[in-house]
Amino acid sequence: MSKEYEVVIGLEVHVELNTKTKIFCGCSTAFGGAPNTHVCPVCSGMPGSLPVLNKEVVNKAIAVGLATNCDITRNSKFDRKNYFYPDNPQNYQISQLYYPICRNGRVEIELPDGTVKDVRIHEIHMEEDAGKLVHDSFTDETYVDFNRSGVPLIEIVSEPDMRSADEVIAYLEKLRETIQYLGASDCKLNEGSMRADVNLSIREKGSEEFGTRTESKNLNSFRAIRNCIENEIARQIDLIESGDNVVQETRRWDDNKGYSYPMRSKEDAQDYRYFPDPDLVPIVVSDEWIDEIKKAEPEFRAAKKERYKEEYNIPDYDIEQITAEKRMADIFEEAIALGADPKKVSNWLMGETMRLMKEHSIDASDLSFSPANLVKVIKLNESKEINNAVAKEVFEKVFSENIDPEVYVKENDLSTKADSGELLAVVKKAIEANPKAVEDYKAGKKKAAGAMVGFVMKEMKGKCDPATANSMITEELDKMCN
Predict the structure, then answer these.
(1) Which segments does the entry list as coiled coil (predicted)?
(2) pLDDT in tens, 339-356
(3) Of 439, 12, 476, which is closest to residue 225 (Cα–Cα)?
């Protein structure tokens, strides 16, 4: 009889905080600058330079801790983590080992089958990010970009409470949602502002002892995380069943090739020779400081969903979709505040907005059009100033360039023709040009009138309301039947 196994998973999640400047200097944290342009003597590790703590980093770290039910450490300190690597300019990283800013938290997750469970958080600590190595496969050379060096990070360390890839993804989604709603980070995995290390081991079902764990580093997509976990579970079970030992090590997952390979044997804290950073004073967190951060907490998704059910007459599915991203929920609420109908705003967000986001590979956090311009499109369409097709065309310009829809419609002569005489003439022309459809209509096939709407729209170059055209065609055909 084959043995049954249980997987044990804990995560170390690194999140880049979206402060304007780095954790210990005034350099920009903006993503995508030319290499080595967001640097100074502090973040490039020049001798004699001294770090100065950015208070906003502490504010955001505490906010994340409070939102994940952590205890806030009232006397917190920074430590030096010593290691030698090309993208680490000081040959040490300023981090927190002994007195992390947050401890003993928990996050409630909901699984696809509706099961709810808590994942405990061991700690959240602040640290600086390293630089980035850029490998040129053509020249076989490696370049170092220090723009990211000194960007503020929090590392969220869970307890080994997860038992499947589904639980891991649910936990990461809840963390991302919470942090995005706080406005502490955009949590873009593709840009590295959220990345996860997976600590995974296998044990026989029912056993209380942990197996030997491996760590898979810097996974930056949910797909890669799931693939890595499923592959590592199978790899460790194969080793155990073949009588081999699982080696405690750090592994690198290659999602394109679908396998992992060892990087180095697993380090312990002693290997990094941690000691208190002599250049940074302790952080003393007062009750008043914590109360101030609590007062600034936003309405989180769960509360927002409940309020939407009470205030807006929209389906639960709409609520789920809109509240999944804070930026989408913000646009929705601002548009309603400007007088738009909630369901119509919801339709535009879940329809055209999400279609264009997918088409242009844009995250909700990058949406730049104003809710006011969305409302103008909706109202132009409601008043039949523009028809549905034109409304979608105009919204594409709003989506990409945030143009004023009213000005754009006027300048491009997109307004629906209001001259009923002109429209009537085209309707009569459509009837004359479609004798077969006329005969079908007279024979009781009322849908035949729709065949002439396309003719009218083409003649009017799309500048009429299809419903109005259909109504006029039906009226004229009814006259012919009487």
Answers:
(1) none
(2) 999 999 999 999 999 999
(3) 12
